[in-house]
Amino acid sequence: MPDLSGKAALVTGCASGIGAATVRRLAADGARVFGTDLYEARGKALCEEVGARFAVQDVSDRALWPEIVAQAVEAFGRLDILVNNAGMVTGKSIGEVDDGTWDRVLAVNLTGTMAGCRAAIAAMVDNPGGAKGSIINIASTTAMAPLPTDVGYSASKGAVRVLSKSVATWCAKAGYAIRCNTVIPGATETGILDAAEADMPGLKAAVAATSPMNRLADPAETAAAISFLASDECPFMTGAEMLVDGGALSIHPGF
């Protein structure tokens, strides 16, 4: 179990799913956690449950990011971990997507992640004891095997993979001990999937079947991978992609 004692973490999209599981896991592993989300009631309740701090945040608001990071630093005296988890899906193909939907999904999933990295690095450089930290960006298997039914989500998550590598190598070349890695979850039991199942009965079973394990991931399984990357147990791991997909991308689609 990773030891995050004394570390300060910021987790976006903390109100449900992987974000909520991450807040719980990082806190259980000893970190002091600051969670953010657009959904105030759920996010605040979750953070209060585990003794974390909470703030309302729309990650696409680039101007708000330095303020959010400053709040975390003020609360904990430093920032060691950023988990860029907040995201959205659209369910619209290239034949259906409108400009507003395209702009919004890129603003949340890609620009929000970039702005978070930028603000976090600025804080981590000033950490007591020197520039050090771990940034974990949450992508998706659609970053490697895109969905024809969601062009915006697929494109934005693919871009997050490359963004993370650029951030990782820039920090390394600058001489900062700030790592940046990507977690790539497969189909996960979340509220988003529940809502989709209501509209498309049988979807969960079909999605679960994309993994040779024939099941959905529990959000806590992804949170465990995030905690490992947040810890000091992998100091030479940066610019990497950690698959938590139940083997979905390891099997030929015909089998």
UniProtKB/TrEMBL annotation:
<dbReference type="InterPro" id="IPR002347">
    <property type="entry name" value="SDR_fam"/>
</dbReference>
<protein>
    <recommendedName>
        <fullName>Short-chain dehydrogenase</fullName>
    </recommendedName>
</protein>
<dbReference type="InterPro" id="IPR036291">
    <property type="entry name" value="NAD(P)-bd_dom_sf"/>
</dbReference>
<comment type="similarity">
    <text>Belongs to the short-chain dehydrogenases/reductases (SDR) family.</text>
</comment>
<dbReference type="InterPro" id="IPR020904">
    <property type="entry name" value="Sc_DH/Rdtase_CS"/>
</dbReference>
<dbReference type="GO" id="GO:0016491">
    <property type="term" value="F:oxidoreductase activity"/>
</dbReference>
<dbReference type="Pfam" id="PF13561">
    <property type="entry name" value="adh_short_C2"/>
</dbReference>
<keyword id="KW-0560">Oxidoreductase</keyword>
